[in-house]
Every structure is written in structure tokens, then in C-alpha cells.
Amino acid sequence: MPEEKILDDISHRRYNPLRGSWLLVSPHRTKRPWQGQQEAPSKTTLPEYDPSCYLCPGNKRAQGDTNPKYESTFVFVNDYSAVKEEQAEYAAHDQDGTLSTRLLRAEAVTGKCYVLAFTPSHNLTLADLSPAQILPIITAWTRIYTAHLSPHSPLAALASSTTLQPSSHDADVATPNAQYKYMQIFENKGAAMGCSNPHPHGQIWTTTGMPEEPGIELHNLQKYRREQGGANLLEDYAALESDKKERTVFENATFIAVCPWWGIWPFEVMVICKKHKLSLVDLDDAEREGLAEVLAEVTRRYDNLFETQFPYSMGLHQAPLEGTKEEIEASHLHIHFYPPLLRSATVRKFLVGYELMAEPQRDITPEQAAARLRDCGGELYRRKL
Prior knowledge:
Residues 218-375 form the Galactose-1-phosphate uridyl transferase C-terminal domain. The chain has 10 helices and 12 strands. The protein is α+β, with helices and mostly antiparallel strands. Helix 3 crosses helix 7.
């Protein structure tokens, strides 16, 4: 039996070079009975327009502003932002050697948070959209990233030469009053992931500090680059997965979607640019089209897997808005999908017990998950109902 096939049947640990961490894999546990919590299946009968929705065109939002009658994407500053551009000043105490200064550390964080409505339609998720319909979302992400990019970044020259035109609904995307370090673009889909509004939308948070997850990844990307003579970890990994095919969900000329070797969530997917691209502004038209296609394929397969509106958290990791030359050049554009469902539309994976106290653990292997997602291509299930 090939060495990797043995891992389908035995408990083992896998290493994640992107985080420098390990996880436990227990394939035999998929046979255990389940009498625990079950989620309610998600609704699939939302109207195209909801007069009570804060994100639908022409409606009033929670704090009284009225949305324009937008026809494509729509972006605005979050009415309930997690970070703000202006707040009371805070200065940490001098490092005087006391226990308080050693153990009770804090630093002020400022930034700007946006909401991006994907389409005017209240009932069209990414899984419902064609690649052509997803392209405006990628364009909006790129515009917002560009507006906050440091003029000192090596990417600034690329950004200034893009052909992306500003949108008439981008009035809120103004030059920030400070240079922020990082921009996190993400989407929470479904009530199981804490989404408070079913209108398909994502968020964009910019902060003065480097967040923990992309910071850990960037550290390991730089480490790999130094140790491997300038090679890029994710470019190498994409080539390896493209060759092996075992964990590939979908692949086109520019991007590959895989259930990563080190994935924690049962149907976790990572979308990786096959060439070393630093950020969204580093993509040409064909590469943006490739990204739109792979996003359509992944999200549609998710919904087809259990024939439900598949919940997930999705986030882009790319070059920081401001950083050293080494940080920028080591960055690699990729997207994480973290979905909670385990064995059906109603049974989810919980990160508890051993996962919280020791290290992450998964049952279904990435190879098994990828095979099931590969088989879920084709037309979106609800169009056949």
C-alpha cells in the first residue's frame, strides 16, 4: 500500500508550514454515531428584494442612511465598525520592569471597516453567480485595497497603472487619514457563521497593526523564502498539488482550489494563485477572470455537497498595505474557506476539548473531502428543484 494511502486508515499528525503548527487526523472517527447538536437547514427561499433589509437598494440602514439604487456592488463604511479612524489617545506605560508592564500589555488600534454588498439581489450568493457576475466583486476588492495601499509599497506602481475605474458608489472609499498596515477582506456566509444579515455581502477591515493569522503566515512565508533560496512556499505548494491531484477540487490556468494537506475544518478549501502574485493589484485581466471562475466553482460545489446554503467564513490573505521589501516580496495571494459542516447539512464540526486544550483534530481526511467536492460540480442543485 502506498505510504500516503496508509494515512487514510491510521491516526497521524500533519504539519502546516504556513503556520508552523500541527494537527491530529483521526480518519476512523467518521464512523462514530452522532447524537449531539444539529443545525437547522438553511433557508433557500429568500426574496429578490426585502423591504426590511439594511443592504437592499433604496432601503434605510440601521443608523438612518439610505442606500442608493445600486445595480452592481455597493460599498459603505460599516455603521458598527470594529475599529475607527478617530478615538481617544492611549499611550502604553514605559517599560519600567514592573509586573504590570511585562504582563498587562496593550496598544491602541485604529482603522476603517467597510461593508461590500455583492449584488442588489437579496437572494443571490456567490454560489448563484456566474464568473462574470463575480468579477465586479473582485474589482471592488481591488479598488478598496488600492485606495489604502502605501505609496511607498512596491505594489503602488502596479496599482497606479491598473485600468480599474472608480465606481459611482465608492464615495466612502476615500484616502484614509492614516497609513494602515493590513487589510482583511472576508465573508461570513450563513447564520451558523454569525452572519447577521442574509443579503450576500462581505466586509473589509483595515488596521494599524498586523493581525495574528496573516502575521504568522507572513513570518513563515519569509522563513521559507530565506531557507529555499528565494522560492515561494505557496507557489511550490500549488505546483505540488497540481501534480498530485489528490486534494484538488478545481483548477484553471491561473488558480487552484485544494483541500489543503494541513486543513483543520472537514471541507476546508484554500484557493492559491499558481504564479507568485503578491496581491489583488498584481493580477491582470485573465487572472482576475480565473479567480472569479474558481470562486464560482468552490461555492457552487459547497452548496451542492449537502444541497443547502453552505455556511463558511472566507478570507483573502495578501501583501500588507505597508511593509518591508522582504514582507511584500514574500507575500502570496491566497484565499481560505473555513466551513463548519461535518457530515450533513445539519451536523457541524466543533473545535472543543482536545482541539482547544491540545491541538486541532479532524476526522474526514482532506483527500476524502476533495474527492467529494470534485464530484459536486455541475449545475447548482436548487436550479433543478
